[in-house]
Amino acid sequence: MKTITVLPGDGIGPEVTASAVRVLRSIMKHSQQDVQFVEKKIGGAAIDTYGTPLPQETIDQCQSSDAILLGAVGGPKWNAQSMNIRPEQGLLGIRKAMGLFANLRPVEAYQALIDSSPLKRTFVENVDFVIVRELTGGLYFGTPSERRGANNEQVVDTLAYSRTEIQRVVEKAFQLAMKRRKKLTSIDKANVLESSRMWREVVNQLAKHYPEVTVNHQLVDSAAMQLITNPGQFDVLVTENMFGDILSDEASVITGSLGMMPSASLRSDKVGLYEPVHGSAPDIAGQGKANPLATILSAALLLRYSLDMDQEASKIETAVREVLNQGYHTGDLQIDHQDDKIVNTTEITDLVI
Amino acid sequence: MKTITVLPGDGIGPEVTASAVRVLRSIMKHSQQDVQFVEKKIGGAAIDTYGTPLPQETIDQCQSSDAILLGAVGGPKWNAQSMNIRPEQGLLGIRKAMGLFANLRPVEAYQALIDSSPLKRTFVENVDFVIVRELTGGLYFGTPSERRGANNEQVVDTLAYSRTEIQRVVEKAFQLAMKRRKKLTSIDKANVLESSRMWREVVNQLAKHYPEVTVNHQLVDSAAMQLITNPGQFDVLVTENMFGDILSDEASVITGSLGMMPSASLRSDKVGLYEPVHGSAPDIAGQGKANPLATILSAALLLRYSLDMDQEASKIETAVREVLNQGYHTGDLQIDHQDDKIVNTTEITDLVI
Ligand SMILES: CC(C)[C@H](C(=O)O)[C@@H](O)C(=O)O
Ligand SMILES: CC(C)[C@H](C(=O)O)[C@@H](O)C(=O)O
């Protein structure tokens, strides 16, 4: 019996996770694998009930699970909160508590959606890469992170890594590259940061163990350009936490399919957390309009990485592609084909199932 | 008599600065203002002669100048250098030595170039904004920046600011917004970084002195998306050093005119350093192919900000636009209009003059 903890979170989180759970239940019927789903609160929903975005109960449940499926956190309701009891702290906290150091974000062109990209078709057509973002180190968790000096008029944050932290995430990226087109782009700012110079050393050292992988280094500013001018060049990208935050959000819009983008946050065993890249979209919450496909595709990654059910994962991915190719999509995708059929959250979930 | 120090640097630097100096000399003939040009070495060229990318002689000369015009630094020849005697150190060093804390990068659609953008025409047509990047603080200069711990297996960089450092650059951005469409977007990562929370406080405090300016805050990851999905929304953006490095390079490709983008690095008096956004393009150096327009437009900014010659600056900008509208451009701009005339560095400079 496998346990999947579901953290619906806020806004459209409950709707999109409900859809993904329906898809998972349906595909599980045809498999040998027994799965139970346990729901817990995180983010704003947890603040409302427990006064904290990440209750101990939620951490405990996650820690005894095989995988976690998360919706989204945050919303205007909690914006007035002090910066330390905000919904996002739940997200950062669970990543850290679970030690999920590698965030994978596949960026892939969907034929049916290419015309909704801000980029011209020729730039997007062959895009198929994965960003591997370090998720539990760097500026996000380094100390000191504080005001100091006379009248607290100075402020510092700390970008801290250990060699081991860099090694384990770069290793993941190499392993992923080996399963794909064997091309790794490591992104850093080695002309300025000491941490980037260590990062580059680690990549070059590990490269010796993966002679089949073509490795190159790009500076983060240059990568921010190349993601737009030549996104087709990339296979696997690996970078530290903050650079990864910025570049993966940039990358998420180039294929015109932000509502479609899944993510997986992994560690060295099979346990992982899976969530859509999009936010909690409080403006459309509860209206049945939300696009559940990113969460459904996250559920596919969950099957692949945490439950060793690669075939079932591919089935879901094929079903999603098929539904789009038939012209069905939710209202958020700005496609403009004749004959397109706009459907709601439940309908598109039914179609995928 | 005003003194302009010219730092040609490496690669195509000497060619593009020569073009810009020719344009400046020609426009000066019709003005009351006497100007002398003094040339000094920086970057790889300085390493070759003095063994350091920023000789004291260059610093001294810059410090007694009214403005500095820089070409570009770097090239494969110096890539093997240790990270501390690299060409880029010259650039970082002169910014710091001169206290040039505000880097301005205008991003503007040129009608003649819109079709060379990777983005669809409708996304780019009305783009007209300026990024104000903090240039002498943050992760670039914070200490400690070092290896530490047993066997040096830990590494830290430090993102440090004082409130005063934040205030002066944000103030510049407000002043600029007042001269433009009165819209300021401040970019930070306030949900994670203490320095960003101070940044946001400073922006909100200064906003009270500029009641006419509409201020909003965007998170850096979200801004990385919005620059692509809706670049037309921006007027003035202001952000810290590293975020500015990444976002301004990202922004530089959306209008399809990277070879056209000037920059100004300013402080509180009128002294400034002006340079094209593009690099030293060693592959085409010395062949007369370089596009000098970004440097010529940087020279226009020099006239505007350092020499109070706004009219002359506008004349240069109009001339550049006119030359492009007539279908002339260098080979780097990927335009594909019938009747376009590809010209070389000297020819396009002649046309502007
Ligand atoms: C909500 C925020 C703290 C988070 C991050 O910066 O990691 C988000 O942007 C993400 O990428 O998952
Ligand atoms: C060369 C490099 C150190 C520099 C920077 O990061 O500031 C460059 O990218 C720039 O933006 O001018």
TrEMBL record, chains A, B:
Q: Per the record, a Pfam family? A: Iso_dh
Lineage, top-rank taxon, reads: Bacteria
Subcellular location per the Swiss-Prot or TrEMBL entry? Cytoplasm
Under the heading InterPro entries, the entry gives:
IsoCit/isopropylmalate_DH_CS, IsoPropMal-DH-like_dom, Isopropylmalate_DH
Offer a single GO CC term for the protein: cytosol
The alphabetized list of GO BP terms reads: L-leucine biosynthetic process
Q: How is the cofactor bound?
A: Binds 1 Mg(2+) or Mn(2+) ion per subunit.
Q: Which reaction does it catalyse?
A: (2R,3S)-3-isopropylmalate + NAD(+) = 4-methyl-2-oxopentanoate + CO2 + NADH
Write down the SUPFAM superfamilies for this protein, in alphabetical order: Isocitrate/Isopropylmalate dehydrogenase-like
Q: Which residues form the Isopropylmalate dehydrogenase-like domain?
A: 3-352
Q: What class of enzyme is it?
A: oxidoreductase
- GO molecular function, one example? 3-isopropylmalate dehydrogenase activity
Which annotated residues bind NAD(+)? 75-88, 279-291
Pinpoint the site Important for catalysis. Answer: Y140, K189
**Involved pathway(s):** Amino-acid biosynthesis; L-leucine biosynthesis; L-leucine from 3-methyl-2-oxobutanoate: step 3/4
Known EC number(s)? 1.1.1.85
Keywords (A to Z) from UniProt? Amino-acid biosynthesis, Branched-chain amino acid biosynthesis, Cytoplasm, Leucine biosynthesis, Magnesium, Manganese, Metal-binding, NAD, Oxidoreductase
**Binding residues for substrate:** R95, R105, R133, D221
The keyword Transferase is assigned to this record: no
Q: Which family does it belong to?
A: Belongs to the isocitrate and isopropylmalate dehydrogenases family. LeuB type 1 subfamily.
Describe its partners and assembly state.
Homodimer.
Explain the purpose of this protein: Catalyzes the oxidation of 3-carboxy-2-hydroxy-4-methylpentanoate (3-isopropylmalate) to 3-carboxy-4-methyl-2-oxopentanoate. The product decarboxylates to 4-methyl-2 oxopentanoate.
Q: What is this protein called?
A: 3-isopropylmalate dehydrogenase
Gene name of this polypeptide: leuB
